[in-house]
Each structure stands twice: as structure tokens, then as C-alpha cells.
Amino acid sequence: MNDCIFCKIAKGEIDSQKIYEDDTVLAFNDLDPQAPTHILVIPKEHIESAKDINESNSQVIAHIFEVISYIAGDLSLNDDGFRVVSNSGENAGQSVNHLHFHLLSGRPFAWPPG
Length: 114
Ligand code: DGP
Known about the structure:
The protein is α+β, with helices and mostly antiparallel strands. The chain has two helices and five strands. The chain has a five-stranded antiparallel β-sheet, covered by helices on one side. Strand 1 (about 20) and strand 2 form a beta hairpin. 2'-deoxyguanosine-5'-monophosphate binds near residues 14, 30, 40, 87 and 96. 2'-deoxyguanosine-5'-monophosphate binds near residues 16, 30, 31, 32 and 96.
């Protein structure tokens, strides 16, 4: 999508601090970190949010979780743990309409979320 920030980041048109990249997935540091580790993991193709996951694109979602597991191991997040969050829609606080998974670690997280 032309006016989508995360599409531009995926294409390299906007800089990001990359953590991981392959043909279909990109992981980069969040601009406004909410924890010592706060990484966004996105599909390079434009999918608006979790509401748009279906059998035509779910392969990349499965791959995103493989990537999350790889990053967690690579950055030694497994001992203390981590949280994966995807906000979908207004009430959940989604502010960028390109599906993304927040990978958060480095401090305790409350449950239930606010
Ligand atoms: P959400 O509120 O769940 O839609 O999360 C969007 C996140 O994206 C938010 O934590 C801030 C981050 N973000 C927004 N614009 C940029 C950007 O241009 N670069 C980076 N690295 N992160 C961004």
C-alpha cells in the first residue's frame, strides 16, 4: 500500500533498526519502546490486521511465529520470558494498519492487560 508506513519500512524506503529479515518477514525495533526489548515483526505483504488472516496468507503468519522463536533464542529472551501482542482495531489500540506482532521482553508484564 502506497501510504503505509510499515510497507515503506519493509521496502527499505524508511529506515529501521533491523533485527531480522528474509523474503517475507521483517523484524525491527519499535520507535517508541515499551520494554527493554520491543521488536515489531511484520509480514512484508500488506495485511491490515489479525482480522484479515485467512487461508491465503496464514503461511506467512506461521512463519512469523517461527521468526519470533528464532529471535527469542538469538537474543536470549527465553530465560526471563517474553510477550507477543497484536493489536487489532480501535479498542485494542492499533495505530498502524499493517499487521504487526510486538515482541516484548526485559521486564515483568501485568495480566490482564490494561
Ligand atoms: P500499534 O499501536 O499496536 O498499532 O503499534 C504500532 C507501533 O509502531 C507503535 O508501538 C509505534 C511503532 N511505530 C510507528 N511508526 C513507526 C516507525 O516509523 N518506525 C518504527 N520503528 N516504529 C514505528
